[in-house]
Amino acid sequence: MTGIDNAAHRDAGVATQRVVVVGAGIAGLAAALRMRQAGWEVVVVERAPARRSGGYLVNLHGPGYDAAERLGLLPALAPKDIGFFTSILVHADGREKFAIPAAVAQEAVGSRALSLFRGDLESALYDAVAGFADIRFGTTVRSITDDGEDVGVTLDDGTHLSAGLLVGADGVHSRIRELVFGPEADHLVDLGHMVGAFPLDTVPEHVPDGVGATFIGPRRTAAVMNLGPDRSSAFFTYRCPDPAGDLALGPVSALGRAFGDLGGGVADALRLLEIDPDGAYFDSVGQIVMDRWSRGRVVLVGDAAWCVTVFAGYGAALALDGADRLGAALEAHGDDIPAALDDWEAGLRPEVRKRQALARKGISRFAPPSRAHVRAAELMLRAIQLPGIRHLVHRAIQRANN
After folding, report:
1. CATH number of the domain enclosing 147
2. pLDDT at residue 13 above 50?
3. Same domain, 270 and 319
4. Can you spell out the DSSP letters for 99-159?
């Protein structure tokens, strides 16, 4: 276990209560930052032995961008913004079908938007938190007690912590949710798909510079982005009747079996994955659905509470927004923690419910059921380049983000 005391105790007297945040991903670090802004002493517990980097692209717009602004992150994030790039739809062998200019996406999303690698967002959050939080890597929570006044947290290294609030931000397979709310099976809704994503240290040979190439076929999608060295990535999703079986295979074998017949940039990405499989994110796709996100002085944030899945494309934005709203609710209600958590959840739940519904509807975009659905999707993508249709799409996206 590595414990890092980043001045958390050197400026004692600024914070009046302690919060323990479990998970040093986007949701956890955002919660740590916002809780400090609300006047809390912060301890962050992370199972991984060290910080993680890399990852796939995330988009911040609408409430997610607004939350990043309120958290003070925009100066650090703006230089890492990838911006908009040309998207090319390709045949199975990698040949181009048609291109969608960057201007189409830019017009639809607007100027208050950021496209970032997940690792860059996490780094900006970590840098914002490191000066005050006691960050403990390589450990996890063994047990929790809650007497209504304080939460007792025992770590697997034997350390005991006492806090006024415990925030579980440890992802879709949350240990905190299991300990407090019951087994994962009670809350996980399996969507019957797999997702794989990983950074590409070497640019894909068969994808032009500054371009994202996407293959969409029946029950699967593969996207490979060539945005330069250390800024390129690959994303895969596919229909899977046996997620447990594919998880056992691992990303190299499972993705190779599902996409090995494809050429072009997809083949490039799969070859690079074989060289460095450890950097890949590979998991089944499932939503977390719960009646309550808090119990006593324990609250869940981010994927641990409401995972909307990659099909919503809004996980990072909701993590920031949820953490920011949590801090605001605690500030508004003072020592009345139950009232703060009730108010926070009532305000956030409609947005989560909407995003989860959009994700379920969006499955057919990522894994069309048939060739007819693929052709219909291609017609729609061609149509949105027409000025009149583009305007309608722009208005629909604005409504979805408000």
Report:
1. 3.50.50.60
2. no
3. no
4. EE-HHHHHHHH-SSEEEEEHHHHHHHHHHHHTTT-EEEES--EEEEEE-SS-EEEEETTS-
With contact defined as beta carbons under 8 Å apart, do 185 and 45 qualify? Answer: no
Sheet holding 160-163, edge to edge: 141-146, 151-155, 160-163
* Secondary-structure breakdown of the chain: helix, strand, coil percentages, each rounded to the nearest 5: 40, 25, 30
Q: State the CATH number of the domain containing residue 224.
A: 3.30.9.30
Burial of residue 17, with CB atoms counted within 10 A of its CB: 0-12 exposed, 13-18 middle, 19 or more buried = middle
Q: Render pLDDT for 122-155 as a digit per residue (tens, 0 to 9).
A: 999 999 999 999 999 999 999 999 998 999 999 9
How many Å apart are CA 321 and CA 381, to the nearest integer? 30
Q: How far is CA 40 from CA 9, 124, 150, 176, in A?
A: 12, 20, 14, 20
Q: 351 lies in which domain range?
A: 18-82+113-189+287-363
| CB burial readout 192-223, b (16+ within 10 A) else e | ebbbbbbbbeebbebbeeebbbbbbbebbbbb
- Its pTM stands at 0.89
Residue with tokens 């400026």: 11
- Could you tell me the CA-to-CA distances from 113 to 4, 62, 65, 84, 389 in Å, in that order? 33, 7, 6, 10, 21
- Note whether residue 317 is domain-resident: yes
- Do both 146 and 293 map to the same domain? yes
162 shares a domain with 74: yes
Secondary structure (3-state) at 178: helix
Distances (CA, A) of 287 to 96, 177, 314: 34, 14, 13
